[in-house]
Amino acid sequence: MISVTDQARQYARDHQQQFMQELFEMLRIPSLSADPAHASDIQRMAEWLRDHLTAIGATNVQIIETAGLPVVYGEYMGAGPDAPTVLIYSHYDVVPASLEDGWDTDPFEPVLRDGRLYARGVADDKGQMFTHFKALEAYLKTAGSAPVNIKFFADGEEEIASPHFADILRENLELLRADLCLISDTSMPSIDEPMILHSLRGMTYFEIHVDGPSADLHSGTWGGTVHNPALALAEIISKLHNPDHSIAVPGFYDDVVPLTDAERAMLEMTAISDETAKAMTGMPAVWGEAAYTIRERVSARPTMEVHGLGSGWTGPGPKTVLPAKAMAKLSCRLVGNQNPKDIFDRIKAYIESIAPPTVSVRVELLTSGDPALISHELPELQAAVRAYEKGWGATPIFVRGGGSIPAVAELYNQMKIPVVMMGYCLDDDGFHGPNEGMSVEMIQRGIETTIVYFDEVARSHS
Amino acid sequence: MISVTDQARQYARDHQQQFMQELFEMLRIPSLSADPAHASDIQRMAEWLRDHLTAIGATNVQIIETAGLPVVYGEYMGAGPDAPTVLIYSHYDVVPASLEDGWDTDPFEPVLRDGRLYARGVADDKGQMFTHFKALEAYLKTAGSAPVNIKFFADGEEEIASPHFADILRENLELLRADLCLISDTSMPSIDEPMILHSLRGMTYFEIHVDGPSADLHSGTWGGTVHNPALALAEIISKLHNPDHSIAVPGFYDDVVPLTDAERAMLEMTAISDETAKAMTGMPAVWGEAAYTIRERVSARPTMEVHGLGSGWTGPGPKTVLPAKAMAKLSCRLVGNQNPKDIFDRIKAYIESIAPPTVSVRVELLTSGDPALISHELPELQAAVRAYEKGWGATPIFVRGGGSIPAVAELYNQMKIPVVMMGYCLDDDGFHGPNEGMSVEMIQRGIETTIVYFDEVARSHS
Questions:
Q1: pTM for the complete prediction?
Q2: Which one, of B181, B132, B142, B183, lies nearest residue B5 by Cα?
Q3: Cβ within 8 Å, pair B305-A201
């Protein structure tokens, strides 16, 4: 007799074309959270999710208004009070994208090419979110029920570091109460090397504003007597790293928990060679802290990156303006036990200490999030290992993630439940970059792995 | 009996309202030379000038097509073969401007407020150009003739460093042949302190492009292992000046003719105090080479300024992109005897020598122009002194200009004629900045000074 999970998996395979059409609808909505001009798209996206959750059989579906962008909630409680409840955190917002960034096709008009879907957000995180929806649908359309209770929580502010998430969680603690949290918003190096994240970095994101003269000046009239704000900004940024590429902010590393030999050995299992890093990124040569391997740098070490520089005239031709101001956007990825607020204070104090008196410098915090580290020996994480083995077809390894999902630390801290991060994407699927994509095969395996995971969680709970 | 010049001056005073209406028409045309999107506005501007020159009585009026943007030419040869011929160089193109730059009103919808006209280009150089047109018109409408022959040459590419001017001059040497060249494209500290420029700086304008990874990356995935192009650019820019604010490019100062004590004394006559510089620019503190006075720095010393920085995301919110590239626009103001091409080569070689192997760096020349130094003892320059005394009402002093009018060096070198730079604007009229303005009083005095100058040139020639 064919098992319940196999029936559900077969349903998912049989309905692939319908699923793709639904996913295309979702990807066409440019739900950018960073740009207030897209507020109506955010609203459209939330309504689409509400309608879709209702259509697949979720109940108590609602758009939860917040102090920021709305959350979409829906649940399936049909497994009964004795079955475990899985809270599924995902996010429907995306980062900006445009053809000028190097996309081959319109980022908000999805295309299927050589078995891959290309669209902003298909990997991060709409496509991964979609696998959870389809896993529930597959159970309900075949067995008529699922083995676990499920609570879907779709965040609208993940890409702007979920500034209201802690409050939303606090205010909806009863509604969201669960035994564990599943998140699929991460990646793996190749389709046969799935990974379960048990650590994520935190973040502090800030802007540096340098103001010089009160208005733009003519460089021939005042050049050489005014500290050019773009020059002053470059000088400040050039002092944020030491010559060995470590971060120059005093006390920055004080609270970093040193890597143990055992941890370094586990990280070494997913070593990234210089050649691989160069091939995957296109960079001419590797950069960074020489005392740490590439895998350590991108997962277990804190970093500081410049995200944007803006000053003066960058259009065509030679405009001889001496700009009145310059600005930069930067962030730090943080690891246990760094405190994002404390790190921001240290950065601010350092920049103020090196700011010359010839310009006026402001350092402003945009967002921050705590790092998180979760034991991989918990049964909910071990159930994920079996789900990949049976549903995906390969044994996963546990890794520390380089990215930041600010919600993870809050979920772990406020709800005291394990957070299981089962990613269904590839490292080079282009999260935040041009030509973001996700293969149909990975989406299919993601759905089937989720189906099996629900079953494994139910079994390990009983 | 009222003199011919007085009649012409009276005509100009009587027709001030008509003149303002004509100038408003010219200022409404956004003739931006740096932006190809404004090609049709450039064309409209050239046609307006052609029609206006014809209307005031110029002959042989024509739009001269060039390899770049068109030149507008018109002449008055009625003074006869024995009278001197004055070539008047001006430019009808302007630099970009928009409300977001801090303008109180639309930069291309001129307004008259408290006796001042506000509009992009009113000072640099449309308003000053206009004074020459009106001087000829005033003579022709009163005496029916002018004391000198006049050739108007309106450049369309001055703000992009006149890349085709040398060729245009070479190809039209016969048409443009003259005994001297008048340019009004400069300024004075206050209405009672007119200045005649006898030196202008040259320029080399270049871009630095830093390329890192082949596409934008996610900072959480690759941060800390890739040399961030925005960081690398900041590091390069921070090494272009020495700690004493001199320029760090080896050999940069090799060809600079040292200032003599006599020259320093002349420059000291127009000294700018720290307090004045701060009040005029709004900068918190003065910056620059401590061994030179502010006036020396802005006129007799070479400088290097950053005009623009661009990289990654500078819009609202925290986008965590690790940008694939970064760019900066810079230029140097050069003094005698610096060679712009040689200086560019030195800058390029220096930047390449400090460029790290972790990124790819390109240095590209945009435009360049020679510096120019003209003796103030020439009769054509002494006639200008008398023109200011009688026409403006104050004795001018000779100064070295901080800006660059690339055409000046070419005119001087190719035509072997004196170039007389009689500015009619104030230093703080906002050349290239927001709220560019010029007072009606200055425009009126400019017209009358030009009227007198034509007479003085005719007298000194006979």
A1: 0.74
A2: B142
A3: no
